[in-house]
DNA sequence: GACCATTAGTTAAGAGAAATTACTAAAGCC
DNA sequence: GGCTTTAGTAATTTCTCTTAACTAATGGTC
C-alpha cells in the first residue's frame, strides 16, 4: 500500500537520512535485541551507516545497548533495544462516553492512564477539561525524569487528511472543530508535536506500530462502538494510514447493507450502523443513553429479545468483516471498540459468519487472523501516542 | 494512501536520484510545457538539480524541448514536453472474450492496436497466440524508429502482490499461472521489463497515469464485465496501486450484498456478482456465452424483462459504487468494463442511485465525480503499458 | 542604441550521506 | 599465544543535492 512517508514534492539528503533512521528504528522495534551487524544485513544498509545512525539514536535516548550475545566464534554483537526509560508520548481519546488519557514509552508500555466517564459537551469545555486531566497525568512520578515527545488526540469522526481538523463527529454533535487550537488556548505545557486523528485510525496505527512480534503486512481495525468505523494501516518501515480523499476512508458504518432498510442518522436507509452499532442496540433494547450498554445487557443477558438482537447484530458484524476483507484484503483484522465488551453473544456469531464465508476467492483457505480486543478502553489513546512517536522519529 | 515507490529496505543515493527523476517526470506529465524554472518552483528542487535531471531525460529521449515562452521581462523559458516520438510501451489484456494489444507512446497515445475476439483457452496456447500477435504488432511502421520500454500484461484475476503470478482467473479457469514465463518461452524479442497485473489494477493505473490534466488525489476504477473488480490508485509522483495482503484488494464482486441470496461461483451466496455482472445477466436473460452481450441486449432492449433486469442490475451497480466510496473514499470513480457498453439502461440507474445516496457523511455535498468509459476495450491494455512506463522511469 | 532589470539556465564549489575499504576489538578454537 | 571469525569504527571515495556565481536572453528605459 501507499507509504506514509513519502516526500511531498521531492527528496533531499535530509529526507534520505530520515528514511534510513526510521528504517533502523523500525527494525529494532520489530526485532528487539538485534546487533548493529544484524540490522545491517536486515536493512541492506552497510555496517558503517548503521553504526552512525545507532550512535545518534543512543545519544538521544531512543535506543539502549543490552547484553552481548556470542554466535559461535567471532566478536559478539551488542544487543540493541528501544530505550523505554527516557521519553514518553501522550495520547488521548475524546470518546462519546468520556475521555481517556495515556502516557506511553517508546515500547508502547502504558506508564500512566486516566479516564473520565463524563460525556464531552462543547469542544471548548472539553478542551478545558482535557487540559486539566493532561496536566494531572503529567504529574505522574514516572514521567518526571522523561522527555515528552508530543501529544496525540483521537476523535470519533473523520479528520481532514491534510490538516488537523475534525470534520464531523455525529455522536458528539461537533462540526469542523480545530481541536488542537482549542487545546493550545489552554496554555498547556506539553512539548513535542501535537496531532489529531480519527479514533479508528489511531487505534489501527497503535495496534500495528506496537505489534508484539513481526506485524502483518497490513491490518484493518474495525471499531464498533456508538458508530462503526475502520482504520487501515500498512507499510514496512513507515506505517501508512489510508485516509482517502476527504478523510472518509473506512467509514463503513454507512455502507448500505439493506437498501430501503431502517433509517440512519446520515440520511440513508439500511446502513451497516442500522444493523449493528451502539446506538442501534440501545434503541432496539431500550437502554438509556447515559447507562452502560454492556452492563445493562449483561444483566439482561437471558432475555430472548436481548439474545436475538445480539445474535442478529453479531451476524451483521461478521458480514461487515467479510466485506471489509473482500474490499481491502488486509493481512489481519482486529475487532475493537466498546461493543466488544458485550462478549460472546455478539462476537461469536460475527466470527462464525466470517469464518464460514471468508474463503472462496482463491479456492483455498485464506485464514486471515481476526483478533478481538475485549477491552479497548485505551486502544485509541495509545494509538494516538504511537502516531506521535512515529512522527517524532521522522523529525528527530 | 500508500506509496508505490518506497524503498523496501532502506534508501541509498540511487534511490534519491530515482525519486527526483520520477518527480520531475511526473511534473512534466501533469503540466506539459513547463520550463525548468517552473519545475523547480513546482517541485521544491533547485534549478541546478532540475537542470541536471532534465539534461539526462532529454538525452535519453524522454523529454523534448518546445517553444520559448516569455513572461513579461526576463529571459523566456524553454517549454518541456514528454517526447512521444522515441519510445513505446506494449500493453496487452487477456480478457475472457479475447485478446487486446496496444502500443503507446510516453504520452499515452495509442500508436497501434490489435484485438482478437477469440476466447483464450489454455495458458500455454494463449501465450503462443499472444506472442504471435505481439510480433505482428511490433511490425507496425510507426514503431520501427522507436525503442521498446517493455511489456505489460493484464489478466482477469488476482495477481500476487510481490510476484508476477496470476493466482486465479475464475472466468478463464486458470490457476496459479506464471504467464510471463510462458511468454518468454515463445522467444519473443521484446526489450525492457515485463510485468503482469490484474486488469482492474492496470486500467486504474492507466486512467490515473495518463489522466488529462491534473489527476485527482486518487481514483477507484470499477471494472464491470464478466465479473466485477476494482482497482485503486493514488499517490502524487509515484502512483501506487493498492493490492492488499494477497492481491485481493478490490475484489468487490464477492462482497456480500444479500446474505442467503443467489449462489455465486465463489461458494457464497448473494455476492455483488449475483446482482450485477456479465455472467449473471447472461444467465438471467438467456444470452449464450459465445454471443456478444451488448449486441444481444441492444436488439432486445424493448423486452420488459430485459429492461427490468438492466434496471435492477444498474441499481446494484450504484449500490456497489456507494459502498466503494464509503469504504475507500477515492477522489474520483471511474466506471469501465464491457458492461458499460450496455449503455443508459444499465448506467443511468447506477449513477442515479449513487448520486441520491452519496451525501450524508459530512452533512454536505461530497460531489465525487463519476466518469463512465463507454468503450473500455483497450483501457486495461493501455494501463498495463502505463505501468511499464512507470517502472521504466524508476529504473532509467 | 546603450544600459539596466529580470528571469532562465549552466557551471563550479561546498556540504551531506552512504558505500567502500581498511582497521581495531573481542570472542572461540587450536 | 596465535589463528580465525565476527562486530564495530575510522578514513576515504563516490554520489547527490545545494549554494552561489556566472552566462544567456528578453523587455523596458533613458
3D architecture notes:
2 copies of one chain form a homodimer. Chain A is α/β, with parallel strands linked by helices and 396 residues long. The first copy, chain A, folds into 3 domains: 13-82, Arc Repressor Mutant, subunit A (Orthogonal Bundle); 87-205 and 379-395, ATPase, nucleotide binding domain (Nucleotidyltransferase, domain 5, 2-Layer Sandwich); 216-372, 2-Layer Sandwich (Nucleotidyltransferase, domain 5). In chain A, 36% of the residues lie in helices and 20% in strands. Chain A contains 11 helices and 14 strands. In chain A, strands 5-4-3-6-9 form a 5-stranded mixed beta sheet, with helices on both faces. In chain A, strands 12-11-10-13-14 form a 5-stranded mixed beta sheet, sandwiched between helices. In chain A, a hairpin with a 5-residue loop joins strand 11 (228-234) and strand 12 (240-241). In chain A, helix 1 crosses helix 11 (379-395). The radius of gyration of chain A is 22 Å and the shape is globular. The first copy, chain A, starts with 12 loop residues before the first helix and ends with a helix. Residues 1-9 of chain A have low confidence and may be disordered. Chains A and B meet through helix 1 and helix 9 of A and helix 1 and helix 9 of B. Chain B binds a DNA duplex (30 and 30 nucleotides) through helix 1 and helix 3.
